[in-house]
Design brief:
Length: 114
């Protein structure tokens, strides 16, 4: 199933963007963004790549998963939080976050007996 239309709108709204603002970011018209969101216009692979890069979402998730699903919202909120604030993170901040993630992964692996 293809969820790209609903996902574009969901991600745009999560970032607090208007259609016009997203159009400017991906160098398209507001009308085209509206058509993508209403599934009345096909989206090119090149545009899927642009959106995937901008929203920091893997292309297969952008197209194939319903990101509005509660199960995925936490994951997306975290990605969006990092994407929104990545410019203010120092290298030290990034290293701290990386260390926390690596330590948590070790804990989980230990719990699973790996």
């Amino acid at each position: 199933m293809n969820f790209i239309s609903s996902n574009i709108k969901f991600l745009r709204l999560q970032k607090g963007l208007t259609q016009e603002e997203l159009a400017n970011i991906v160098n398209k018209s507001r009308v085209l963004i509206s058509q993508w969101e209403s599934d009345s216009r096909e989206i090119t692979t090149e545009d899927i790549i642009k959106l995937s890069d901008y929203f920091n979402i893997p292309m297969d998730n952008l197209v194939g998963k319903d990101l509005r699903n509660n199960q995925n919202n936490t994951y997306n909120e975290l990605e969006l939080l990092f994407d929104k604030h990545k410019d203010i993170l120092t290298d030290s901040d990034k290293n701290i976050i990386k260390t926390i993630i690596e330590e948590r992964k070790k804990e989980i692996d230990k719990e699973l007996g790996e």
